[in-house]
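We treat protein structure as text, and this decision shapes the records that our systems exchange. Below, we set out a record of this kind in full and without editing:

***
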Amino acid sequence: MSGMEMQTFRVEELKKVIETTIGEHGMPEKEAEMMAKHVMNLFGFNGRILDNMLEPQDRDVFYMLEDEEILTTEREETTLYDGREWRIHYWTFRKDRIGEILSGKIKTADFNRYPKAEDVNIYDEVPDDVWLRRSEEENEEE
């Protein structure tokens, strides 16, 4: 993808994607709109943005969007005149994923793919014989 490729979606569409994907129950409309505008302003009309142009708080937002597969990173390497390797990191939109979300191919339930902490009990997955062995070892030590 060329860095000069123009965006093919609007702020309103990015807002909808953010609303339905960020957070356990989605993000409030006003916050999603502010985030969408901010992200689109950073990208401008380019298809990618240099990572080193971002402020730390912007990068945090980008990582959040990357977790939801809305953004992805790319890397280029070049050799400097003195022989050192130089890496350039970019952020790009996952237009395929955004399109799937907007078209409804991905349902909201798919976004909450990580279980809540209170719904997971790791001890349920430990076989009973492990508990028995541990109990027997403790009895032997006494």
